Amino acid sequence: MSTPTTPTAGARGDGHKISARGEARRARIIEVATSLLARNGSRGTSLAQIASAAGVSQTGLLHHFSTKEQLLHAVLDRRDEHENALLWRGGPDPGLGIFDIVADVVADWPKHPELVGLVAILVAENVGTDAVLKDRLTATYRATVARLEETLVSARARGEIRADVDLHAKAIEILAFLSGLEMAWLVDSDVPAHATAIGWAAAQVEALALTR
Asked: H or E stretch including 47?
């Protein structure tokens, strides 16, 4: 789960404006990079491989992304945009509805499996304190926990959630549930992920609701 990102439309990573054709080429590079990174990881994917698969020269790729790290961030921006569009589509404060929304996010996995596997493999590659994406992944995780907690706090203020629930721990639990289910689904696509998420969401609402 992600927090909102605000990429600059029609701009390269260095902020320079690019043409519509250039924007389409940039989007294609990001799309191809996402697929290759989800399959092989960052360590197993070179810029030359991405350029070849995207149908551009390596020089052409470097015109849009001067470093591999810059491209990695662009790929994560795309992934975050997609998930945020699902997660917060009903507004910034869905209350207890956040649990049903989480189930909807899981339902989207089969449509975009590369976006699911992408984060799993990049997290595995960047657990070290000096890893390239460590700071970003940590910041995204903490910001997402904070935003989920804010949503739950607002729901409690409206009388939707019991007063004895540790909302910070519950926000962490939401992400832990998603991460665990995600790994199970990546290992075995026959796992009934959506049905599991629906059942979990219903149980969470029942357990948290002020009136039961």
From this structure: helix 47-54
Phi, psi of 11 (to 5 degrees): -135, 150
Helix axes 134-157 and 98-108, enclosed angle (nearest 10): 140
- The pLDDT score that the predictor gives to residue 8 is 42
Domain 20-208 has CATH 3.40.50.970: no
Tell me the C-alpha to C-alpha distance, in Å, between residue 174 and each of 19, 27, 50, 159. 41, 31, 34, 20
Q: Is the dihedral of CA 80, 83, 88, 89 positive or negative?
A: positive
Report domain extents, the chain: 20-208
3-class secondary-structure state, position 92: coil
Distance CA(79)–CA(112), nearest Å, equals 10
For residue 2, which of 178, 203, 132, 205 has the smallest C-alpha distance? 178
How far apart CA 1 and CA 148 sit, in angstroms, is 10
Q: In 10 A of CB 81, how many CB atoms? A: 14
pLDDT tens digits, one per residue of 137-195: 999 999 999 999 999 999 999 999 999 999 999 999 999 999 999 999 999 999 999 99
Number of Cβ atoms within 10 Å of the Cβ of 35? 19
**What span, in angstroms and rounded, lies between the C-alpha atoms of 196 and 106?**
9
Span 84-129, pLDDT tens digits: 888 888 788 898 999 999 999 999 999 998 888 898 899 999 988 8
pTM score, whole prediction: 0.83
